[in-house]
Amino acid sequence: MIDKRVESFAAALAGVKDGDVILCSGFGKAGEPRALIDALAEIDVRDLTVVSNNGGSGVNGVAGLLKSGRVRKLICSYPRSGDPVVFDQLYREQKLELEIVPQGTMSERMRAAGAGIGGFFTRTGAGTRLAEGKETRMIDGQLHIFEKPLPGDFALIMAQCADRWGNLIYRKAARNFNPVMATAGKVTVAQIAELVDLGTLDPEAIATPGIYVDRLVVSP
Amino acid sequence: MKPLTRRQMAWCAARDIVEGWYINLGIGMPTMVSDYIPDGREIIFHSENGILGMGGAPKPGEEDPDLINAGRGLTTLVPGGSFFHHNEAFVMIRGGHVDLSIMGAYEVSAKGDLANWTTDSDTLAPGVGGAMDLAAGAKRVWALMEHNAKDGSPRIRETCSLPLTASGCVTRIYTNMAVLDITPDGVAVREIVEGLDLAGLQKVTEPKLVLASDWKMIVAPEM
Question: How far apart are CA B66 and CA A173, in angstroms?
């Protein structure tokens, strides 16, 4: 019987190692797998690269993970959001590498990773500082820059509802980066609010089919 | 000369929005534009975190932490609205499906180059969010900004002094003094506040201005 549930956060995060790239979903608090991220901050690993839209707010979630000292590099579109006390301090003290990526490009780079595409050309960022060092090409008379895939060793995502196969349904704008990150993680772990019986999710409404999901951990 | 208030600037932009457009409003002053859409004009607001048909702020007791806008403020969904994931939100943007992006700006050049993502601060990290995607991908981009910086220097420039968000993307600028179009013939003044003439506006604007043939005075309600 396929059952992707694990009983603890430790089991959900088993195998995370030094230097891993961790995709952390969420936009603000909506769709953020807060409990999973907090659990990761307790694991003895270092030199992680975190991919998240922001650099966290307050002292928990991504902010707590940064504060734990386990993160070497942050890849994000907008580091300073909400109350970025932890990020600001690390940035000031030059204790964190920062890669700024336009939000749509960040999402598409993960899509490329999840879809087995070797990158893509986009007009986003062409002719700007964020294009420095990137291959360029004129396509139909418009300047494009080449962007590489952005895979994760782990993708930590959050869903409202799941069955034991890992089929996922999200709630409102808490969907955000979750479906694309689910495809881009070598190991995708979903923190879910509710587990339901197989066959009870509306097949038309399943936003992430279970093929992308490796582990489920319930955190109501 | 009495410059427009921020609310009057938003009102000016709202007045010019065409029924049926799909629109993305930037964080800050552009968000106010949604307050002034004329009654009866159906407009669909897009939010890059996965919403089409975004409504206004929720009534007390109807707040939902899973229903937030791009600025992480609580919002609502109008009947007919839909949710989708981030990647699809940017397919809409980059694919040219969004009719209009209204963004704040630090500077706009005579050619419509936009600078609105970093001031090169030494102490605070820059953040780009979806600005570069919107600037490159939306069908049209309007900038909403004060005409001059705090030190009085012009924000409409021959070339931007700050790092670019995208080149040649802005087609119209709404300021507290005027409404201007970026045209092949230069920066054209469509509208100007009462008590200010072209010479006066030119003094606080770097590129050479031309007066549109059908220019008019801005008559905005007090707010």
Answer: 5
pLDDT in tens, B2-11: 999 999 999 9
Alpha-carbon distance of B47 to B73, in angstroms, equals 12
- Out of B49, B85, B90, whose CB is closest to A179? B85
B144-184 residue pLDDT tens: 999 999 999 999 999 999 999 999 999 999 999 999 999 99
Closest in A30, A104, A207 to B130, CB measured: A104
Q: What is the span of the domain harbouring residue B130? A: 6-217
Is A211:A183 a contact under the CB 8 Å cutoff? Answer: no
In the CATH scheme, what architecture does the domain A9-218 have? 3-Layer(aba) Sandwich (3.40)
Taking a C-beta distance cutoff of 8 angstroms, is the pair A149, A186 a contact? Answer: no
Distance between CA A152 and CA A155 in Å, rounded? 6
**CATH no. for residue B37?**
3.40.1080.10
- How many angstroms separate the CA atoms of B118 and B116, rounded? 6
Q: What is the pLDDT of residues A164-206, one digit of tens each?
A: 999 999 999 999 999 999 999 999 999 999 999 999 999 999 9
Pairing of β A97-100 and β A71-76 = parallel
Report yes or no on B222 lying in a domain.
Answer: no
CB contact burial A178-210 (16+ within 10 A = b; e otherwise): bbbbbbbbebbbbbbeebeeeeebeeeebbbeb
- Which ipTM score applies to this complex? 0.95
Contact residues, chain A, for B97 at CB < 8 Å:
none
